[in-house]
Amino acid sequence: MMIKGGTFGPVATNTYVVFEEAGGPCLIVDPAAGSRAWVAKTLATHELAPLAVWTTHGHWDHVVEAHVWADQGIPIWAGSGDEDWLHAPAPFNPALFGNPPPTPGVEPARILRDGDQFSVGGITFTLLHTPGHSPGCFVAWDAAAGEALVGDLIFAQGIGRTDFPRSSPTAMMASLERVLRELPSQTRIYPGHGPWGVTVADAEPWARMFM
Ligand SMILES: [Zn+2]
Fold first, then answer.
1. Segment 103-113, tens digit of pLDDT
2. How far does the centroid of ligand 1 lie from the alpha carbon of residue 127, in Å?
3. Most exposed of 15, 81, 179, 194 (fewest Cβ within 10 Å)?
4. Ligand 1 center to residue 52 CA distance, Å?
5. Share above pLDDT 70 across residues of the chain, in percent, rounded to a whole number
6. Ligand 1 centroid to residue 133 C-alpha, Å
7. What's the domain count of the chain?
């Protein structure tokens, strides 16, 4: 599996393009503000055909350019719990996001739930519902490759905030415990912010400081 990443927008959000090999299908993950040109260049460089845009959760910074790809006929997949934030990706926390202008909403073509699986070429992801940072946070785990797209659940050296509207610190702790229990320690993580490619074993001691 190839995971190309870039960091964009006012809160340094990671966008990823995931694929098995050049010339095949790919998944666009979390199209952040200002990611459009980089995603297009990545698609062109590797001759990729986007299967879908998958959003790890519905916060503005992770969904704001979903409409760019929806307008090109690419389906948007979202996790159950945050889908209304894709309909209207207005800044729910203006102080954090600096009052960005509203952007066009999208209608998710597919609402994903815990245990759902989807394939991108020969890659198979299994979804874990990991609420807390928001109700609709999901982790996409490729057990065979030992890689996981973890959104804002866990970072290389920390965890996602739980002081937002609809956050739940209690749910967050349960989600972190679950992921740290179920993902093998050598699984590499690809978070929504900060460095990627560190292992669960590397990230766990940092996460535990907040648990
Ligand atoms: Zn978030």
1. 788 999 999 99
2. 17
3. 194
4. 20
5. 94
6. 7
7. 1
The CA distance from 203 to 198, in Å, is 7
Question: Which CATH number fits the domain that encloses residue 127?
Answer: 3.60.15.10
pLDDT band at 100 (very low <50, low <70, confident <90, very high): low
**pTM of the prediction?**
0.95
In this structure, what token pair is assigned to residue 115? Answer: 């245990």
Q: What's the mean pLDDT in 144-155?
A: 98
Q: Are 38 and 15 in contact (CB under 8 A)?
A: yes
Q: Cα(23) to centroid of ligand 1, in Å?
A: 31
Q: How far is the CA of 32 from the centre of ligand 1 (A)?
A: 11
8, burial (CB in 10 Å: exposed 0-12, middle 13-18, buried 19+): buried
* Distance from the alpha carbon of residue 36 to the mean position of ligand 1, in angstroms: 19
How many whole angstroms from 211 Cα to the centroid of ligand 1?
A: 18
What is the reported pLDDT for 88?
A: 76
Q: How far is the CA of 104 from the centre of ligand 1 (A)?
A: 19
Residue range of the domain that includes 191? 2-208
> What is residue 35's predicted lDDT score, i.e. its pLDDT?
98
pLDDT at site 97:
63
